[in-house]
């Protein structure tokens, strides 16, 4: 007798052969997948404590968001129509560093988790958590039931590229202390909550740290057998700075600092030159593509088809509340599929199947959890979502992968299972009190704006 069977659905396994089982079932025992096969075969072999009928629905691995800012959900829509450095210096960082008080970090993490769970994300990589409220944010994620690699912000300079003092005083940290804090977080949290929580090293963008500091962080990550992530080549300023200061391309600089390896995720990569693609590929690194954020901030469009042609492992990410305004990976998938067709004037680029691969198994590979997540195969962890595409906005279903990528959104996700636990069923989240959290978010948002004397409103006259 097994614990749960998801039966009668279309199963997108995302296994090595990318097999799709038209009338398939997934067998779950404790927190792992026991079997995946056609329903007729599963019915012969198994009985379960509970069965969920998924007829007419798509069963697939939970989505992996490879670049998230948990602390920015509570400051959604705080900095529209601003370039990156003023956006950071005047709004995004002060709102977190000055305006946040105890409890706000945890509330932001829970709001972010709610949206991710409801839109089918089961695993994420948090890019840069500031030390002040990092533990309460981790606690929020543990309570949510999600799986995440959470990165402590590391820096020893207050600059962004060649812009001196771009990081405001409220978010500046002592380099030695950030390394000490990270080690303490690893001791306390790495592998916590049944191995749902991993602690990574979150490196500030070049300009925010010295070469020696980067190398120390890379060595520590290796010693602790964990990962690290860094924003890279997001804007043209990054390219100019590395060329003028070091005479290197971004990936030559990463290699120079030992920030390479299968445990490394670079976010954005908008302005990476072609010669860097091979360095990423040769070192088994991952590039996190964040199209919505890059477009909203006017940063540009990353050359993703070209990277894929070079064999780069490209994952997908939503980034944060002020740069994207949502944490919905399904919406991000559509954008990632469309913008490159328009950029290259080629509708054959970036088909739906490629995009879903980026959002599942490629993301899993970047987190170094790919032996356990990213596909539906016996022995892997039961991180699974059930999607109903028979909705007004996404029916009729001909190719379910296409319908998901081009016509879907978070409202199509009905069930989210993480580590074998049903976190959401029939759109009802079991781990977090959605109504209570939303009420608190509305209440706290106005207080946060007041603390920074912000009055953000429409540009149109109100009467």
From TrEMBL:
Query: Which residues belong to any copy of the Amidohydrolase-related domain?
Result: 59-422
Q: Where are the transmembrane segments?
A: none
Gene3D superfamilies per record: Metal-dependent hydrolases, Urease, subunit C, domain 1
A Pfam family this chain is assigned to: Amidohydro_1
Q: Which terms are listed as keywords in the entry?
A: Hydrolase
Task: Tell me a Gene Ontology molecular-function term this record carries.
Answer: hydrolase activity, acting on carbon-nitrogen (but not peptide) bonds
Q: What is the protein's given name?
A: Amidohydrolase-related domain-containing protein
């Amino acid at each position: 007798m097994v614990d749960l069977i998801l039966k009668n659905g279309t199963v997108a396994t995302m296994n090595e052969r990318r097999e799709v089982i038209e009338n398939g079932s997934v067998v779950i025992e404790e927190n792992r997948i026991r079997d995946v096969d056609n329903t007729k075969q599963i019915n012969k072999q198994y009985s379960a404590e509970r069965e969920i009928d998924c007829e007419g629905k798509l069963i697939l691995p939970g989505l992996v968001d490879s670049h998230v800012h948990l602390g920015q959900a509570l400051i959604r829509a705080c900095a529209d129509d601003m370039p990156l450095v003023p956006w950071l210096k005047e709004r995004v960082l002060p709102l977190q560093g000055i305006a946040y008080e105890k409890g706000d970090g945890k509330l932001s993490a829970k709001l972010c988790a709610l949206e991710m769970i409801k839109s089918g994300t089961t695993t994420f990589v948090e890019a840069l958590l500031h030390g002040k409220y990092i533990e309460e944010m981790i606690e929020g994620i543990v309570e949510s039931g999600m799986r995440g690699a959470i990165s402590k912000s590391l820096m020893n300079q207050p600059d962004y590229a060649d812009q001196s003092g771009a990081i405001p005083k409220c978010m500046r940290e002592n380099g030695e202390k950030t390394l000490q804090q990270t080690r303490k977080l690893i001791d306390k949290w790495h592998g916590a909550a049944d191995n749902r929580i991993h602690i990574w090293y979150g490196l500030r963008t070049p300009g925010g740290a010295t070469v020696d500091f980067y190398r120390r962080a890379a060595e520590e990550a290796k010693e602790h057998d964990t990962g690290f992530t860094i924003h890279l080549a997001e804007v043209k300023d990054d390219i100019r700075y590395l060329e003028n200061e070091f005479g290197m391309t971004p990936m030559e600089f990463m290699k120079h600092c030992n920030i390479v390896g299968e445990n490394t995720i670079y976010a954005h990569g908008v302005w990476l030159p072609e010669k860097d693609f091979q360095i990423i590929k040769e070192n088994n690194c991952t590039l996190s593509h964040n199209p919505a954020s890059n477009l909203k901030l006017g940063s540009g469009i990353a050359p993703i088809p070209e990277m894929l042609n070079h064999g780069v492992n490209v994952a997908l990410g939503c980034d944060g509340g002020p740069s994207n305004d949502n944490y919905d990976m399904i919406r991000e998938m559509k954008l990632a599929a469309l913008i490159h067709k328009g950029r290259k004037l080629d509708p054959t680029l970036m088909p739906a199947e490629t995009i879903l691969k980026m959002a599942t198994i490629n993301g899993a590979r970047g987190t170094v959890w790919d032996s356990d997540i990213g596909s539906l195969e016996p022995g892997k962890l039961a991180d699974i979502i059930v999607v109903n595409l028979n909705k007004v906005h996404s029916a009729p279903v001909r190719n379910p992968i296409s319908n998901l990528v081009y016509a879907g959104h978070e409202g199509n996700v009905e069930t989210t299972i993480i580590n074998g636990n049903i976190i959401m069923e029939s759109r009802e989240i079991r781990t977090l009190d959605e109504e209570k959290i939303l009420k608190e978010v509305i209440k706290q948002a106005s207080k946060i704006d007041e603390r920074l004397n912000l009055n953000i409103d429409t540009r149109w006259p109100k009467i």
